[in-house]
Amino acid sequence: MQVNKAMNRTKAVVLLIAVFIARGTSFLFSKLLLESMAPLAILAVRFTLAFIILSVIFGKRLIKCRQGEICSGFILGILYTVCMIFEMYGLRTVDTGISSLIENMAIVLVPIYMSVLTRKMPRPKTVICALAAVMGVAFLSIAQSRSASGISGIILIIMAAVTYAACIITTDRVSRGGDPIVIGIIQLGTMGILSLIVALITGGMSIPQTGSQWAEMFMLILVCSCFGFALQPLGQKYVEAETAAVLTVVNPFTASIMGILVAGETVTGYKLIGYVLILGALIYYNVEDNINK
Questions:
Q1: Structural domain total, the chain
Q2: How far apart are CA 1 and CA 21, in angstroms?
Q3: What Å distances lie between residue 201 and 26, 41, 196, 220, CA to CA?
Q4: How far is CA 25 from CA 69, 124, 177, 207, 216, in A?
Q5: Over the range 56-74, which residues count as b (16 or more CB within 10 Å of their CB) and which as e?
Q6: Residues spanned by the domain of 167
Q7: Contact between 234 and 3 (Cβ < 8 Å)
Q8: How far apart are CA 48 and CA 99, in angstroms?
């Protein structure tokens, strides 16, 4: 339990920033693998192997897991599986930068969700950021409107954003009641099993066939899953949900930059306006929260 004792809010914030950077890279590697593998097959291989690796590393802690930790990990696993399915199917027709930007609208959806749960009106700043983000999505939708598949992909990514906001709030609630590392591992195992079952039922199960495909898969497994997914509950144990949502701003930055520099994605006028509106909303929300603190 030395990891937990050494953790404080400042270190947790740094950890979450690193986690969201790692998660931002997943859009690129997933996009590359989608050229040769079905979405559910990628999820099944990615999360099953990540669960096995982390189970070996943290075996002693996993053996001592409690029923509450199992339930928490299972709940998070279900929610994140739904989120990842929306994301992966949307990624097939939407650029990585656009996908990450839209999905990370969770930053303004979380306080709106919290307002509903607490029956309090959201702050004016939240409303402004939400409206700016929605306008940004509208411009990105125009950029993708050259085909029906592009619009359907945008809708799927929006659903991923809605689900991701619920995941952030749920992680905040369940990660404080047990060992967050154990919860994160069980979450990954749940995601792997659920994805594998659906992939086998639909007949879309396969594994990487080439060295480059395995390299992309292991980047997803080690960087984006073992580190990115499993350690998010640890960081959120010491950071409130609203702050965690704000920190996700680094995710679309990472995905957008990698999409342009590595994948050669172009930036059109409509895309640029959408980028500015959404990133501006995220940055404004972040800066204002830091000033208030």
A1: 1
A2: 25
A3: 25, 11, 9, 24
A4: 28, 32, 30, 21, 11
A5: eebeebbeebeeebbebbb
A6: 2-292
A7: yes
A8: 24
| Confidence (pLDDT) at 134 | 73
- Which is higher by pLDDT, 257 or 216? 216
3-state secondary structure of 119: coil
The token pair at 98 is 């656009």
Rounded distance, CA 93 to CA 160, Å?
Answer: 14
The token pair that represents 209 in the structure block: 């066939």
Identity of the residue numbered 253? F
Separation CA 154–CA 198 (nearest Å): 23
Please spell the DSSP secondary structure of 97-161, one letter per residue. HHHHHHHTTHHHHHHHHHHHHHT-PPPHHHHHHHHHHHHHHHHHHHHTTTSHHHHHHHHHHHHHH
The reported pLDDT for the residue numbered 195 is 95
* pLDDT band for position 277 (cuts 50, 70, 90): confident
Q: What span, in angstroms and rounded, lies between the C-alpha atoms of 82 and 209?
A: 26
- Per DSSP, the three-state class of 249 is coil
Which residue type does 259 have? G
pLDDT at residue 169 tops 90: no
Would the pTM of this model clear 0.70, i.e. be above it? Answer: yes
